[in-house]
Structure formats: structure tokens, C-alpha cells
Write a structure and sequence with these properties.
7-stranded parallel β-sheet; homotetramer; 16 helices; adenosylhomocysteinase activity (chains A, B, C, D); about 425 residues; 15 strands; alpha/beta; 8-stranded mixed β-sheet; about 45% helix; globular; about 15% strand; Ado_hCys_hydrolase_NAD-bd (chains A, B, C, D)
Chain lengths: ~425, ~425, ~425, ~425
């Protein structure tokens, strides 16, 4: 079939009291907007230049206040925008409703929907026949390629936000299956450093703390994976006086963690020593029934990677003699010997799916979304020049966003003199 | 008057659905209890030995799950316990109800009551004619001394939890006004290090982050005061990659902060540079109309000290042309030039009064409350040997609690040999 | 001319007491060798397989104990080796003599020689007609290209150790002037992370401390440049409780430093605030007479970049009314108003040219030199397959070295299961 | 005997070229003086007021440049000063000679003397019949009490610099054996924080690094003892990216280290895991033949405590099949199975006795010696009011020094208002 025909209401039709929700959502978005100086700058430009006029942007993102600021910006730039969630637990219904109430924006995102409704919402967005896709986890790109390939001809390109999504897109690209250009927003220096390291690091730890009421000082925190997210979680946990153990499969990352002063070992060894386990790998089966039986009573397991497959909950369920909600957002699995293993947010992304979750910090998303916005603009302006496949965001765009941020912070840099440029470009100076 | 005659219902009578509240409260307390190994150990002993049999303990504490574990422990030790809050915004009604539902415990604590009801609840506790008082901020001790001095004859002694309370008790003691012995629980090495440094540090930052959705990386965080709490807040904020500025009035503390690598300056200078301000002084008027007009648009002010007087909100109100709730728990004051100053939790203790507040971390309070419990036991067993006034908790009790904790963590120490003891005690060894 | 005809004695001929020097040098090399597990492993392989048989390796490196361990390894692999220094102040004469005394090795390096002798020593090495060059700063590659181009035909390839050297080689490559393949050893993940970040960071700070007897706690340390070296210096200085200010010309690096919690500003602003200035840019004129007049009395200037041009000493000399040796390795420049500016190691690399300099830490160089060794082996084995120009070290070689190191440290990793590999390679999993 | 009659020449008589030594020593002292702003300020006052006129100060300190600045200050204040070393390996002969060449100062200190000469030098100082003693390790106080008790009548009082010395003095005091008042300079907040934590921490690590050429990144550093010195060493080692293990005998200190994020265990367990061991206990037999056989090949042992008894070298010698000087300042003990244990500086204080040792950093000693100076002044002015025994330095003096330092750094504090003072002194404010 060429275009989805699914009937699916936008969020406002499904709420009991949409007016209050819109008001609450609007207030949340305003707070975000006020703390997003990069989007603030870009909005002035987008409103003036209307770079997205005539385009339709389909988004599958975590629908909360910061994403809303990006969504508004794209609409302000002239696009028609349709949006839904990229994780059933990360949507804020009030924000979704406040977006849906705006001219040029339709939102289908609803918190806590089942898998069927989740995918129907994605189809509803696709039904708008987007010319540009913006994904966080490539669910929309995948759905279009699998089910609505006829739409691909009119798609200029897409953006992908996450490590995991980019990883999977590259696999798809290698298989020759990716049929339009996609910017690996995740892979920009700005995104990797700030969103993955600082954003995931701070937000994951704060969410775990505020869900469990536990502290990090003196705790042994096991961080699975030492990519950008793992690096951030490990660094921030150490900064809260935890003892951090890192597990890895890659020798260079493992060595890097070791040289940073972390203890590095395998999960089998770490299982019996950790108090808190945080997975950041983007892979599956990181903590399994090889490990559960070794764990201490009362351990806390949380996922800061991507999908809910890093902790193998099926195996844990199998092992457990009883489960119960120990606290809001904490499910306790009791093993036969009475020990309890506490899983946060059903193994989903803890910084997005915990009961108090606010997602990534505002300023962090300002940087990521600044790149998204200029990448979307680039697709419209120069999309023709990109072949189908995964593309790095052009360096000049990434730098543009960094400069915008530094200006907003009032930070002054040195400037290369001509002599310095010449020196850096030369090779005939001696000792 | 010798005993309060106030009629004041316990919490269950004031709730719409006390049964659900009790159930919710019970579940919260169970989580706390499971993560408090010191209280766990002591409970076995208290249940067996009934050291508090015949005593009445009057408590004015933050009534939430961890305090409840202490309250239960005291009751398990044989005491009759009456409890109320020490801050109108820190009570969890469900926990209060769950306590009140237990044999031997009456709880008057209710969240959000006005000043009048707050003090009536304290009077209601005093109406139980406590033989031992346990305070967090000395409100109960003060009320007894001011209004019910006749009760003092039968009071064995008291415990005070906070820096500020101990400070005020010492002032009272110096004035010759303190008429029974009070243990300065706050001043034990265990309490100062763990509760003030780690507990206040981690909890304040997590609460601010989860109330505002802001991050610390790259932020300028101004910490007012470099006592134990300030030290913790500064250290943990640095550990989240903030740039930290410390303000102080004491030269040695200022020098200590300077030598630690923090920037140290006065508040007038810091006012224009900070993004987030956290007061930890226990004093009043730390941030005033000398400073508000210098601040950047969108700054966040939070209090991690004690009372809500550290930020002078009257003056801020005076300056503001408009105020509104920017987010739950965040009040925005808009100045005449459009700049906004965001105050968290009405200037009250952010880690106790923010909308997501859980109070100090569980394990931190396990340590503080372990000391409270053995201090209460000491008052019953040896109260006669203490004169009226502020007393340090005997060192042996503090060490007892440290050892209990290390045992629970499975940490093994070295042991001094006889030769080493002799060496340390001698003075005639040469170079 | 096609081959240098310079007469230049090897180091032993120039020492008063070569036997003692050889003995001292041998002891120094033995210490290094004992703490270089990667070279230890590779040596067993090289001795057995003789991969370099028939080759002549010309080296221009810092001639001290660690480099000696690499030199011995190359000789053990079957090569004839000729070596000289890459910085007149970094040579240890005893190590140079101990190398020269070994079968198959000739060393021309001598500490403190003048420019003329320095370049004559390079020519002497070139006179051996190397088939492989190993540089630290590309002086040998430059000399061959400029003065002995006829030799290029028989050169298989080269290795370059430093950021600055690689930078200049790329410039040369872009100009179409680089006529044989050169591995950018500096650019391997292993080298950048460990040598630049940890090695330069730790060694620079320790050398400054041990030359000046000053401490970092409470000091304001200005780090010019936030590349890998600057990152290391800044991180380690913060870890010693300094207040760190970073200066940069690149917006992304500046933003990264800002997000890490450092103060970022321009040198003009930093000049008046720093106590210690450390340049790490690889560029010239970082600190100039724009900045000297603003500096505090007694400031310390040190270079951890590459050449002695980062601090403009000509301008400083011009400004000074008097200069003297304030301590060994510290030259004090007195300005007209009496303020003194202290320059370490004549503005040369402080971790190599200070009076107590030992160069980079042993284990750090073990990693860098492990890569050098396998890169030289690769040139011999597969040199034909590389075109003239700058090449990245093949990833497999870099990983080989990381694995060797982890094995030596006894660190155990997790291993990807087939299911995990399949998952990471797939793109059709949903949420 | 009442006064020593030992004939012992001052240092100048024992040097081959005293004039060069004096010149070198003078230059070293000038560098120190220039970086000691507190002594600089006090010197102006002492020269003007001559508070020590008529007194004789006997000193047994580490005789190097910083101590010299204190010595000069005391002489400038009107005292006659006689000085010798407090550790045979920490004296700089040139500094000793430069002191001895000054009006009013006699120095007997000589590097590397044997035990007999060491104690004869102390006797030579005592021969000056000091009215005030200044000790670093209480050797002089002990000698006076044991051998020259008749002198005690004319002694006004003394100062003791070290943790260990104060500990032993307190033991002596408890035995009723201490017969004149001694200020526990070590116990002032200023000294404990800055000298012990920052000074010992930074200097020990830099000396170990510059003696061994090893780095800390990725190393396992075992710190024995978590008093102020251990705390500093652990913190700074972590700040260089080491993995730190702490051993302790005291439960509260152990718990504090645990809560800081360090691994805490006993030495038996740590022995097999450490790469570098640093003792900071002030006790004996911390590392013994219980531990040597468990250690890894090539480990480094260093002492940052006080005496050379923390590592039991007799037992190590016993175990070793061979010993040799592996590097300058490093003695390698080879065990029967070929493993080597490297001991730095003969087990003496590594920051004072390593081959490159400069002692504590200049600014750190400025603070400690500022307190020494005002404490000596206090003894002269108010010595009568102190009974025999160990005394804390009056708080006002400690604060005076802190304020002097802050002024010198240009750091501005807040000032308590009258309302704030009243608030802090009151106890009747409510919530």
C-alpha cells in the first residue's frame, strides 16, 4: 500500500480535559523555550526566512517540552508538522495536546499506549506524507521503508537523533536498503559530547536517585558500556562519589576506562559487586540469568541505552517467585532465596520513562535540537546533493550551532592571527 | 499552662481515604526499611531488649518514609511515640497515616498546613507529655521551654538533628535557658560527614534538576556558605561539571574553598555571574535586593540551608512586577525590565519541599537515624549523668554506628597490633 | 647532494667517561623495559620472527630510557638503527651512550648541543641511508625531503609521533610534497587518549611542580588550547585542586571545555588572572607582549605543546629590564615595574626539557611505542600497499596493542554473543 | 648534665666550597620568600616590632628554602636562632650554609649524616640554651626532656609541626612528662587542611612520579591511612586518574573513605592488587612480610607518613635474595621467585627524601610557617599564661593567618550584618 489509511485521532480527541492539558503543556513548553537560547536564535531566522515553506515534516520523537520547542520552530519555519512518540512511556500528554492545538502541527503522541496504538500513531504521521522525517530510534524510517516505500520518492531526507538509530541505519545502509539520505545527527561532535555524555549522564542519575531515594556516595555503580553515554554516566556517578565499575566488549574503550581510573571487568564478575547497574550499550542481553543469581539483595537495575532489551526481563521474570511494585516506577523481582532485584521503568530508558522523568536537560536538548533544525534546513536547501544513505551533518552546521551557543553564554575566544594560520599550515619550521 | 489542652486530630481523621494512604505509606516505609541496614540491626536489639519501655518520645521531624523507620524502631524499643512535622511542606501524608495506624504511634503531621495548624500539631505532641524529645530544627524544644516549662521536670533529654538547631540550642544554652540535656546529633562526625555533606549535596542537586529540567554541565553554580552542607553541594555540583563559585563570611572556610579550587568571592560579585544559586548558610538575608537586580534572566534560586529566610522573598516580591508559577514548584518573579528570577519550593529546603522531594537519601538517613536511636537509648540508660545543656553524642556510640554500617557493607579493616598500639602511645622513638 | 657526507661522531666519542655513562644508561633503560609490558611482549615476537631484517631505521626522537626500549626492540627485530634527538634539551647522554654501545645501534644524540650540531646529527643519521624513518616532530622527514631527496626512492615509509608533526605532514601532503607514506602514529585512538591526555597531562604538571616547588591547590592555571594535550593538562590540574581557565580558538572545543566546567575566555582576559600558564596549542605566539604587561608578579609560564614558540620569548626579552636564573630551569624576566615573569625550560617542552625531566611516563610510552613498533613492522610487511602521503595506522594494529595491554593488566572483557552481533547489525527491531 | 658540651661545627665549616653553597642557598631562599606572602607580611611587622628580642629559638626542622624563610623571619623579629635538621636526608646543604652565614643564625644541618652526627647536631642547637623550641617530629623536645632537663626552667614554650610529633607529645603529656607548654601547630585547622591534605598530597605524588617516571592513570594506588595526609594523597591520586584503595584501622575514617567512593579493604587484601603503595599512618609495620609475598612484580612502595618504620624494611631485606639501586632513590628488593619490590627513599618521607625532593610546596609552607611565626610570638608575649602541656594554637591566631592569606590573594568575603549576627545568636525564630 502506498499511504497509510489508518484512522487515528490526534491527541486532543482522546483527552478528558484537553483545555487544561493544553494550558499545562503550554506552560511546560514556555519554560523549555526560555532555556533554549540556540532555538531562540534560530527561531528569529526561521520566522523571517521561512526556509521550510511547503515541506511536511514527520517526527517520531520523545514528545515532551523540549521536543515541542523544536517542533514549534520547524512549524515557524513554514513546515507542516506531524508528530508522534518514539517510546510509549516518554510522552507528556499535555505537551502533546499543546502542540496539537497549534496551527500547522498535528500530534498523535499519547503516553502509555500499547504496541498496536504506538505503531498506528506512526502510521498516522506517515499518512501526512512527510517530505522530511525526524526520528529518535528510526522507527518511522523503518516503517516507511518496510510498509510505505512508495512515499520515498517524495522524501527529501531525514534526521536521526540516537546512537542506536544511527547504528541501525548504517547496517541498513550497508545492506543497500536505505533509500533516502539521513543525517546522523547523533554523530556530530556537538551531539555526542553534550547530549550523550552530559545529558544522558546527568539525567539518568537524577532519575534513578529521585525514583529510588537512594544516594550514590559509597555505592558501587556498574556501568555497562563505555561509549559516549556510558562515559557520561560513569563520570557523573564518580562525581557523586560512587565507586564505578565499567564493563565493555571493545578493548580500546575498556583500556580508556581503565586509564581513567575506573575498575574494568566483565559482567559476570561485576554482578556480585554492584549496588546499582546502568546499561548504556544499545545492545541486548547485557544483564541476563547468568548474572541475576549472583546479585546482592536490593540491587537496582536501570537502562540508559535505548530499547528495553538490555536487561533480559523475560529471564528475570522466569527466575522470580514473586513480583510487585516496590515504589512507583520500581518493580521488585523476588528470587527463590528471598533476594530482591529492583528494575526501574520496566527496563526502558530511565531518563525518559521513570515516574518523574523529564527527559534530557533543557540546555542539552537545545544543542541537539539546534543541530536538528539546521540539518532539516540543509535538507530542504541542499537535499539534492546528498545520495541515499547515512550522512554526517556538515561540519559547518555543527560549528554554527556551537558559535550560537557560545555567543549566548557570552564566552569570548581567541582568534587566529594570519601568522598563526600560516604557521599551522606550514611544515618547514625547525625545532 | 503546664500541658497543652489543644484539641488536634491525628492525621488519619483528616484524610479522605485513609486506608489507601496507609497502604501507600506502608509500601514507602518498607522500601526505606529495606535500605537501612543500621536500623535493621538495631531493631533486632531494640525488640529484644525493650530499652525504651515506659518512655514517651515526642518527635518533630520531616515525616516521610525514612523518619518512619526510626519512629517504628523507637516504638519497637518499647516507647510510646507521638510525632509531627518540622516543616509544613515536608510531610508525606500517606507515611504519616501509616505511622498513625501503628500500635504505640500517633502522628499529627499533615502536608501544607498553615502556621497555626503547624504549631497546634507541635502542641498536640507535647500533650503526650514526652519524656524524650527528638527535634529537627528545635521547634519542639523551643515550644516546651517557652510555653510548657512545667513538663521539663519529667523530660530525660532530647536529640537535635540539624546544624541550625544545634547552633540555636548552643545560643540558648549560653543564655542559660536550656533546661534539659540535648544531644547534638548533628555534630557527630558520622552525621556531619554523611548527612550534611553527601545527603544534602546529592539530594539538593537532584531535586533542583528534577524540578527545573536543567543540567549542571557548564552552569555557574553559586553556593552560599561552605560549612558541611555547602561543601557537599559544591563538591557534587563540581562532580556534575558545573563551574562553582563559593561565598563565605568565615576566612578559614573561604580559604579552604579557595584551596579546593573553587572560585571564592562575595555575593555582590557572584550575583551577576551565577545561573543557579544554592544557599546553605542557616542564616537569613543571604540573597537580597542588593543582589536581585544584578542577576541574569532566568536564574534559579534554591535553599539547602534550613529556614526559608536565606533568600529574602519579601524584598523580591517587592521588586517584582508580576509573579507566576513557571513550573510546578517554581515561582517566577518578573522584574520591571522583563528579567525573571525563578525561586524553587518557596525558598524552603529544596530537598524536602520540592514537588518531587523525597528528602535525604535512604542510606544517609540510616546513618543519622542510627545515631538518633542509640542516643535516645543512651538518654534512657544514662540520662541522669548529663546536665542540662548541649552535649556531644558520646564517641563510643558514634563508632558503634560506623561499625554496624561497615559490617553491613562487608568492609574489612586492619587491626592495630599490640606493637602498633604501643608505638602510637609512645614518645621516645627517634628518627 | 644525494647522501650526507657530514663527519659526526657518535655519542660515545664525545663523553669524558663513556663507560660510566653506558652503565648509568643501561640501568635507566632496564627500569623502563621492566615497566613496558607491551614492548616486552612484542620483543619476544620480534626476536623470534626478525620482521625488520635487512632494514635500516633512522630515528629522531627524545633520546631517553623509554625511547631506548623501542630502539632496542627495533634492533632486536633485525634492523640496523641510527638515532638522534628531536630536541636539543631532551637527550640523556647516558642513555644515548648505552644505546650506541649496542650491536646494530648508532646514537648521535647529545644533550644541549647548538642548532648546528643538532642538524648535523640528523644528517649523520640520514647518512645511514634509512629505509624507514621514525620521527617526533618530522625534522628527519623534512631534512630528507629538502636536502636528500635522492634517498626517498629506497625509503619504505615513516612514522610520526606528535600532533604537531602530523599536522605539518598533512600540510606537506596537501602541498603534494610528501613523497613517501607516513603513519600518523599520533592520530591513533591509543596515542591520542593515553599519550596526549594522560602522558602530557601528568608529566607536565609534575615537572612544573618539581621545578618550581609550587603547588596547584588554589592556583589559577591557564591552559591554552583544549586539544588532547590541553584536555589532559586541564583535567589533571583540576584533579590537583587548581582553578582552571581554558583559552581556545575553536568554538566546539571551547564549548566542550565550558561544558566540562572550566572557565573559558580569551588570553587577554586570562593574562591578568593566571598564576601558572601552560601552552598546549602547537601554534606560535600564544602568549605575547599583548599579555605580559597584564600578568601578576611571579607568574610561571610553561610550554607543553611542541616547539618553543608558544610563548614569544623575544618579545618578553624586549620588555624585560633584567633577566636571571631564579632556580635551575627557571628564568626570571623582570619588567620595568619590578614584576617578574618566570619562564620554565626556556619555553621548550617542560616535560622534556625541565632540569628534572624524565619525559612522558613509562607506561604511557609503552603504549605509544607499541604502536610505533607494529607500525614499523607493517611498513616492512605491507609498505608497498601504501601510497605516498599521511596514513592512519590500521585500526587492527591499534586494537592489537590495546589487547596486549589489557592482557598484561589482567583485565577481562565481555564478549559479544552471536545474538548480540546479529542485533547490532540489524535494523528491523522495534521499540 | 645541664647543657650539651658537644663540640659540633656549623655547616659552613664542613663544606668544600661554602661561598658557592651560600650563593645557591640564597637564591633558593629568595624564590621561596617571593612565593610566601604570609611570611612577607609578617616580616614587615616583626622587623618593626621586634617581638622576639632577647629570645633564643632552637629549631629542628627540614632545613630547606621554605624553612629558611621562617628562620630568617624569626631572626628578623629579634631572636637568636640555632637550627638543625629533623631528618638526615631532608637537609639542603646550600640552604643550611646560607642561613648560617646570616647575622643571628647558626645552622648545624647537613644532609646525609649518620645517626650519631644527627643527634650531635641537635645537641649543638640545645647548647645555645633556647628559650623557645620549634620542632618537626619533637626530636629536640625529647632530647631536652631526656638529657638536658635543667634547661627547661628557662624555656618559654615550643611549637610542634607534625601530626606524629603532636601525637607523641600528647602521649608524653598524658604521662605527665611534658614540662613546658607546646603549641600543636599541626592541629590548627589551617595546618591540617592545607599542609597535610594539599601539601603532603601533591608533593608525595609528584616526587614518586619524578623518581620513578611512572604515571598514575590506570594505576591501582593503595593509600594506607585516611587521616589528613591519607585523605590528601587519595584525593590527588584519584585526581590523576588512579584507582585508589584505602586501608584503615578506624571505622569512622574507613566509612568516610568508603562514602567518598574509594575502595576500602585491609592491607592483606590490598597487597596483591596495588601497583603503588603509599603509607600515611604515622605508625609502624603497615606493610610487612605478611604482605610482601603477595605483591605484584615491580610494585613501588613509598612513605608519606613520618618515620621510616611504616614499611618494615628489615623484614623485606630478610626476604630478598638480592638488592640493588634500580634508579636513583629506588632500591629494588628481588624476592626468591624473581619478583621485585621497589622501595623509594629508603622508606623515609618520599616528599622530603627522594632524590628530587623539594619538600612541601612553597605556598603550603607559607601557611604552616605563618602559624609557627605567630605562635612563637604568642609564646613570647603570653607564654606565662600557658601551663606545661600540649596546647591548641589560639583560634584568633589561626584566623589571623587565614585573613592575611586571603588579602594576599585578593579574595573578598561577605560580612555578617548585625541582623545576621543577631539571627545566628538567637534561638526563638520559628519555621
Amino acid at each position: 500500500m502506498s499511504t497509510p489509511t489508518t484512522e487515528y485521532d490526534s491527541i486532543r480527541a482522546r483527552l478528558d480535559d484537553p483545555e487544561t492539558a493544553i494550558e499545562d503543556g503550554h506552560r511546560k513548553i514556555e519554560w523549555a523555550r526560555e532555556h533554549m537560547p540556540i532555538l531562540h536564535e534560530l527561531r528569529a531566522e526561521f520566522e523571517r526566512d521561512q526556509p521550510l515553506a511547503g515541506e511536511t515534516v514527520g517526527m517520531a520523537m520523545h514528545v515532551e517540552a523540549k521536543t515541542a520547542a523544536l517542533t514549534e520552530l520547524l512549524a515557524a519555519g513554514g513546515a507542516e508538522v506531524a508528530i508522534t512518540g518514539c517510546n510509549p512511556l516518554s510522552t507528556h500528554d499535555d505537551v502533546s495536546a499543546a502542540l496539537d492545538a497549534q496551527e500547522g502541527i498535528t500530534s498523535y503522541a499519547e503516553r502509555g499506549v500499547d504496541d498496536d496504538a504506538y505503531y498506528r500513531a506512526i502510521e498516522a504521521v506517515i499518512g501526512h506524507e512527510p517530505t522530511i522525517t525526524v526520528d529518535d530510534g528510526m522507527d518511522m524510517i523503518a516503517a516507511i521503508h518496510q510498509d510505505y516505500p512508495d512515499l520515498i520518492d517524495t522524501i527529501v531526507g531525514g534526521c536521526e537523533e540516537t546512537t542506536t538509530g544511527v547504528h541501525r541505519l548504517r547496517a541498513m545502509d550497508e545492506d543497500g536498503e536505505l533509500r533516502y539520505p539521513v543525517f546522523a545527527v547523533n554523530d556530530t561532535p556537538m551531539k555526542r559530547q553534550f547530549d550523550n555524555v552530559h545529558g544522558t549522564g546527568e539525567a539518568s542519575l537524577a532519575n534513578i536517585a529521585m525514583t529510588t531515594n537512594l544516594s550514590y556516595a559509597g555505592k558501587t555503580v556498574v556501568v555497562a558500556g563505555y561509549g559516549d553515554c556510558g562515559r557520561g554516566v560513569a563520570k557523573k556517578a564518580k562525581g557523586q562519589n560512587a565507586h564505578v565499575i565499567v564493563t565493555e566488549v571493545d578493548p580500546r574503550r575498556a583500556l580508556e576506562a581503565h586509564m581513567e581510573g575506573y575498575e574494568v571487568t566483565n559482567m559476570t564478575d561485576a554482578a556480585s559487586r554492584g549496588d546499582v547497574f546502568i546499561t548504556t550499550t544499545g545492545n541486548r542481553d547485557i544483564i541476563t540469568d547468568d548474572h541475576f543469581p549472583e546479585m546482592k539483595d536490593g540491587v537496582v537495575l536501570a537502562n540508559a541505552g535505548h530499547f528495553d532489551v538490555e536487561v533480559n526481563l523475560d529471564q528475570l521474570e522466569e527466575l522470580a517467585v514473586e513480583t510487585r511494585e516496590a515504589r512507583e516506577g520500581v518493580k521488585a523481582y523476588e528470587l527463590a532465596d528471598g533476594r530482591r532485584i529492583n528494575v526501574l521503568a520496566e527496563g526502558r530508558l530511565v531518563n525518559l520513562a521513570s515516574p518523574v522523568a523529564l527527559g534530557h536537560p533543557v540546555e542539552i536538548m537545545d544543542q541537539s535540537f539546534g543541530i536538528q533544525a539546521v540539518a532539516v534546513r540543509e535538507l530542504v536547501e541542499n537535499g539534492d546533493s546528498y545520495e541515499a544513505g547515512v550522512h554526517d551533518v556538515p561540519d559547518a552546521l555543527d560549528r554554527e550551532v556551537a558559535e550560537t551557543k557560545l555567543d549566548a553564554e557570552g564566552i569570548s575566544l581567541d582568534t587566529l592571527t594570519d601568522e598563526q594560520r600560516e604557521y599551522m599550515g606550514s611544515w618547514d619550521h625547525g625545532t
